[in-house]
Automatic annotation (TrEMBL):
This is Amino acid transporter 1. InterPro entries: AA/rel_permease1, CAT_C. One of its GO terms (cellular component) is plasma membrane. The keyword Mitochondrion does not apply.
Length: 590
């Protein structure tokens, strides 16, 4: 394509330069940015371009073929369902289980934390089901960005992707710094011992962390060299982690005291639900695995087994670990920050904390790897649409991996991890993941019940109405919970509206599209429930996170209005012109 390859005079030297990403054309090759005159002209047409692109929906074949062609080379299909199961576990089972369990059990649910883990696990599984259907139908690198672009339009996809990428960077930097902290404790040092303190810097940015940078760079190199090699390393590291978890279960249960379960749910159902909302974040990470679509040998078979299978294993492991912890110690004595380590100390097994720390270290390593691999593939597909600099879309011919995007994300992760304290990073983790999970479930309902040119205007209007009711009732239910109302009438009303809206969608709107290979069962009930539960969990997120979400979204909007809108507009028009030219040639040949 002209935008992708015709740089300068269009010869081979220019193509090589483009791959190096060292000219303006690598970042802004579109017509709107070729001169100040063309850019001013583009800005003057912002209103019409917004109207054209705001709700513009892509199509399956565009994402599967024309978008992928912009990367110049194909990713290598090396992954099987076996690799996906290990990647799914490696992406999710990081330090979360070793940290969040303490807070949830001690402050909210007590021994019923095992029930909370099960509830949040089923909630995550609903999102996994929605992602699985999309990943099979659209096995491309963009993951949720692609799904939303096809069903809800460019703008929603852009805002969602921008927020999830920000959260990926923050999460990656946070895990990298935690890696340093756990390494220090493994050698009987304080968490900050392996960091350099610079007193002239601000307090939250004064502990410089070269180890976090080093582990990020090593992971980045591994991810860029070979996807199959990354998969093998992830599998080996995850197996080691499972051995450590097995040790915790077996040794921990030898110190079990059933009397610790005498007060099973000290705070009742509210405490269990509050703990569930906290523990949901221990299941986050599987969405990155959905970006591996282009590298899977048999998506129709491998994706359901890999994604769903890994989540079922994770739910089981988490519930067993939580149950073991509460059998080892009374819930009121569980430490909030290091529950498993101090539980072993409390029962006279002080030496075991080394094994727990080692397991957490291994878990964080696989989370870093899966995080970076998912980040780079998100960025790759966004680059293909020109909403991000298109040089990021390049796939290396030799490795079959998105090297440019991997390098970019490694640099961003390393810079943030080097300077920023864990306290700041923890506060930056927002509700973007929950927002996107809700949007993907909503997009699945749109995909099943709306097909352009086939769905009648009457059915379309009913679909919009029912979706609005599902969203509104879900938000109302979450707000009622968040404001601390103890009554049940509000929940009865909002849940009843949600139920009737979902029932109306089922009975009164004709399903427009059936999945070709594998589909979410019980549609629209399960996707609708996913929307409602994810929105409900958002109510547990603090107000500061909502403010950060809004501020970052405003930053994204500024970039969209001045850059991404015009770049994606030119790229979309190029596709239309290319398609029209091909059609004319076919007609001429006839």
């Amino acid at each position: 394509m002209a935008i992708e390859t015709n740089v300068g005079d269009g010869n081979g030297n220019d193509l090589k330069k483009r791959r190096c990403g060292c000219s303006k054309q690598d970042f802004l090759p579109e017509d709107s940015f070729q001169s100040w005159t063309s850019y001013v002209n583009a800005l003057s047409n912002t209103k019409s371009r917004l109207k054209d692109r705001l709700l513009a929906r892509s199509m399956d074949h565009v994402e599967l073929h024309e978008m992928r062609a912009r990367s110049q080379h194909e990713m290598k299909k090396t992954l099987t369902w076996w690799d996906l199961i290990w990647f799914g576990m490696g992406a999710v089972m990081g330090s979360g289980i070793f940290v969040l369990t303490g807070e949830a059990a001690r402050n909210h649910s007590g021994p019923a934390v095992v029930v909370s883990y099960f509830i949040s696990g089923i909630t995550a599984l609903l999102s996994v089901l929605c992602y699985t259907e999309f990943a099979i139908e659209l096995p491309v690198a963009g993951g949720s960005f692609t799904y939303l672009r096809v069903e809800l339009g460019d703008f929603i996809a852009y805002v969602s992707a921008g927020n999830i990428l920000f959260e990926y960077v923050v999460a990656g930097a946070s895990v990298a710094r935690s890696w340093t902290s756990y390494l220090a404790t493994l050698f009987n040092h304080a968490p900050d011992s392996f960091r350099f303190h610079v007193s002239s810097f601000s307090e939250h940015y004064s502990h410089l962390d070269p180890i976090a940078v080093a582990i990020s760079v090593v992971i980045g190199i591994a991810a860029g060299i070979s996807m199959k090699g990354s998969a093998r390393f992830n599998s080996a590291a995850t197996i080691v982690q499972l051995v450590v978890i097995l040790f915790i279960l077996v040794v921990g249960l030898t110190k079990a005291d059933p009397n610790n379960y005498s007060d099973f749910a000290p705070n009742g159902i509210p405490g269990i639900l509050k703990a569930s909302s906290i523990l949901f974040f221990a299941y986050v990470g599987f969405d990155g695995v959905a970006t591996f679509g282009e590298e899977i040998k048999n998506p129709g078979r491998d994706i359901p087994i890999g994604l769903i299978g890994s989540m079922l294993v994770i739910i089981t492991v988490y519930c067993l670990l939580a149950a073991t912890l509460c059998l080892m110690q009374p819930y009121s004595q569980i430490d909030v920050n290091a529950p498993f380590t101090l539980a072993f100390k409390a029962v006279g097994l002080k030496w075991a904390h080394y094994i727990v720390a080692f397991g957490a270290l291994k878990g964080m390593t696989t989370v870093l790897l899966a995080n970076l691999v998912g980040q780079s593939r998100y960025f790759t597909h966004i680059g293909r649409t020109h909403m991000a600099p298109p040089f990021l879309a390049n796939i290396n011919e030799r490795t079959g991996t998105p090297v440019n995007a991997t390098i970019m994300m490694t640099i961003l992760n390393s810079i943030v991890a080097f300077f920023t304290s864990l306290e700041v990073l923890a506060n930056l983790l927002s509700l973007a993941t929950l927002f996107i999970f809700s949007m993907v479930a909503l997009a699945l309902l749109v995909r099943r019940y709306y097909a352009k040119g086939e769905t009648t205007s009457c059915d379309r209007n009913k679909l919009v109405g029912f979706l609005v009711l599902i969203l509104a009732s879900s938000i109302a239910n979450a707000v009622y919970w968040a404001v601390g109302k103890n009554g049940w009438i509000g929940h009865v009303v909002t849940v009843a509206v949600w139920f009737l809206a979902t029932l109306g969608l089922k009975l009164l709107v004709k399903e427009a599209k059936k999945p070709k290979l594998w589909g979410v069962p019980l549609v629209p009930w399960l996707p609708s429930a996913s929307v409602a539960i994810n929105v409900f969990i958002m109510a547990s997120v603090d107000g500061a996170s909502f403010m950060r979400f809004v501020v970052w979204t405003l930053v994204l909007l500024v970039y969209y209005i001045f850059i991404a809108l015009h770049a994606s507009y030119d790229a979309a028009k190029e596709i239309e012109e290319t398609r029209a030219t091909a059609t004319n040639l076919e007609v001429g040949q006839l």
